[in-house]
Every structure is written in C-alpha cells, then in structure tokens.
Design brief:
The complex is a heterodimer of chains A (about 240) and B (about 110).
Chain A: H1 6-17, H2 21-37, H3 42-52, H4 55-66, H5 71-81, H6 83-96, H7 101-109, H8 113-125, H9 131-143, H10 145-159, H11 172-184, H12 188-203, H13 211-234
Helix pairs in contact in A: 1-9, 2-4, 2-10, 3-10, 4-5, 6-8, 8-9, 12-13
Chain B: H1 9-33, H2 41-47, H3 50-64, H4 75-91, H5 94-111
Helix pairs in contact in B: 4-5
Classes of the chains: A mainly alpha (about 240), B mainly alpha (about 110).
C-alpha cells in the first residue's frame, strides 16, 4: 500500500490515534468531574479545557487552586508541568518547521503527548514524508482525540456527581504515560535517560512547586544526550 | 452540588487566561518562531531525549505515592504500573500495555476487596 496523498496520511494518523480514545475519554471525564466538584461552572470548565488543552497541567492548576496557592504559583507550577510541550514543539520543528505559519500555529495548539509521540515515531520511521504529509498525519492524530477530550470533559462537568472511586480513574494518567514509555526505549541512551529521570524525580519529590519534575526531566535529557555522545565516540552507537 | 465554595472569579479567570496564553506560548516557541531554521546538533541531541525523560519523571512519583491512597504505596497500583511498562516494552504496543495495566489494576482491586 502506498500512501502518497496528504489525505491518506490524515486518516492514517486518525486510525493510529484510535487507541488513545481510551486515554483521553476517562481523563477528560475525570477533569470535568473534579472541576465541577471544585465549584467551577460549565462555562468555566469548558473555557479552561478548550483554551488550555493540556490535561496534566489542568489537573495541576486545579489541585493547587484547591490548596489555595497564590495565583502566580498556580500558573508557574502548571506551566512547569507543561514545559515538556515546549520541548515537543522543538522536537517537531525539524519535521514541521517549513510549513506555513498558520499551520504551525494550529499545530502548536494541538501539541500534546499523544499527537507528539505518534507523530515523532511516524516521522522517524518514514524519513521520505513531505511536509504537507507530516502536517496531515499530525492533525490526523488529533482529529479524534481533541473532540473526545472536549466531549468527555463536558460529560464529566455535567455529571458533576462523584464517579465511584472503584473505577480508580486516578490511575488513568500513570497507566497511559507508562504505556508510552516502553516503546520509546529503543537504545541504551534512552534507557539511561529514563532511569535517571525516575531516580531524580523520586529524590526531588520534596522540591516545592512541581520543580522536581523539571529537574528530573532535565537530568534525564542531559544523561541521554551525553550517553549518545559517549557511545558515538566509542563507535558503539548503532 | 457545590459542596465546596466556588473560587473567587478573578483568581479563577486569571488562572484560565494565564494558562491558555502560557500553554500556547510554550508550544509555539520553537515550531512557530524557529520555523525551518536549522538548529544546532547539540540542541537536537538533547531534544531526542525529551519524552523519555519527562514522562517517567511525571509518572514515577504518582506510582510511588498514589493520590487515591493518600500517598501510601499501593500494591495494585504498583503492580498495574509494572505490568503496563513491561508489556509496553516487550510488545511496543501502547494499547496492549494500557489494557494489560487496566486489567491488572481492576483484578487486584477486586481480589483485595478494595
């Protein structure tokens, strides 16, 4: 099967993203429910979820607001949790940077864990893709997930009522992210990066304002990059 | 329905607007402003390890100290996390990993009568 048109890449992205419905739906539902329980009304919840469009950061902000943290701390912490999307943006730039500005602005809004991880795997797998094909694939990965995320948040917000704790929705985020980590560990450098990031994040858990995440993430990145450099020099880099 | 009092609207909207602007700015920073200009190799080398460094750092504390148990280490959640990771690593299949993890979590929560 040859996929020559941007259109077919859009649908490929759409199909590849289908499993993530089972991530986005419970996650969006949970945000809607928790936000409603925290006292946000429907308009506030939906404005929040549509304009920010970043699950982990939204949960962080909600949590800190409930702890009555100062507004600046809430913003700094939630944006720190979301700093990884800046790195995703940088990572996608070599592949999508040549697209028109309006497409890049739209892509920026849609840069989330799922669209990034699916796209970067595809772009590395098929180096011959054109920029329009890559953009089509990228938007394809969001064509299901984004509407599902908005709708699930709305349903959660309207339900407002407690979701039974037996559903253990609290653990949807860790499971979703863990599932993505396994397939990323392609080289020893990737494994070292993940290992260091786990160790540092555990050690830095007492660091205030979620800064432990940033410290651990940076430590992991530097470790991976350095390991790659050392292995390249030794001639052991695949 | 509103057991908890709503937040002060000014504070709430400051957070929403600040996060909307901030989140977009973070995402637009590179793809929008750098565009097709070439980036130095050392930058790209670090960026290759972004996801593999940030996601474990985000997850590890949530697995070690789950919010649902008030931060107490929890056998079903730790087991589900381990199964999810191992299945993901071995099969390279994200959905298989998620389903295995979810089944493990529900089975253990049920068996332990939680």
């Amino acid at each position: 099967m040859t996929r020559t048109t941007a259109n077919s890449y859009f649908w490929l992205g759409c199909r590849n993203s289908a499993p993530f419905i089972f991530v986005a739906a419970p996650f969006g539902l949970l945000f809607g429910v928790l936000a409603a329980e925290a006292g946000l009304n429907l308009v506030e919840i939906m404005t929040f979820t549509v304009t920010v469009f970043a699950g982990a950061a939204q949960f962080t902000a909600l949590q800190l607001m409930q702890e009555e943290a100062p507004t600046l701390i809430v913003l700094a912490s939630a944006l720190a949790v979301n700093l990884r999307v800046a790195m995703y943006s940088a990572s996608l730039t070599p592949f999508l940077g040549a697209a028109p500005l309006w497409q890049r602005a739209l892509a920026a809004y849609f840069t989330v864990d799922q669209s990034y991880s699916l796209s970067i795997i595809r772009f590395e797998l098929e180096p011959g893709m054109t920029v329009p094909q890559r953009m089509a694939y990228f938007f394809g990965t969001n064509s299901l997930i984004a509407p599902v995320w908005y709708t699930a948040t709305l349903v959660g917000a309207v339900m407002g009522a407690r979701i039974p704790e037996s559903w253990a929705l609290d653990f949807a985020l860790p499971i979703a992210f863990l599932a993505m980590i396994g397939p990323m560990l392609r080289t020893h450098a990737h494994m070292l990066a993940a290992l260091v990031s786990i160790l540092v994040s555990i050690l830095a858990v007492g660091v205030p304002y979620n800064l432990g995440l940033l410290i651990a993430g940076c430590a992991g990145m530097v470790t991976g990059a350095y390991a790659e450099l050392v292995m390249t020099r030794r001639g052991t880099w695949a | 329905m509103n057991a908890t009092p709503a937040f002060d609207p000014v504070t709430l909207w400051a957070v929403i607007v600040g996060m909307a602007v901030g989140s977009f700015a973070l995402r637009f920073l590179f793809i929008g402003l750098v565009g097709s200009r070439a980036m130095p190799e050392w930058v790209l080398r670090h960026l290759r390890y972004t996801a593999v460094a940030m996601l474990p750092a985000l997850v590890a504390p949530l697995v070690a100290w789950p919010a649902a148990t008030g931060g107490q280490p929890d056998m079903p959640r730790m087991s589900a996390a381990a199964v999810t990771f191992v299945v993901g690593y071995l099969t390279k299949n994200v959905i298989a990993a998620i389903l295995s993890g979810a089944v493990t979590l529900y089975a253990l929560l049920y068996l332990l009568g939680v």
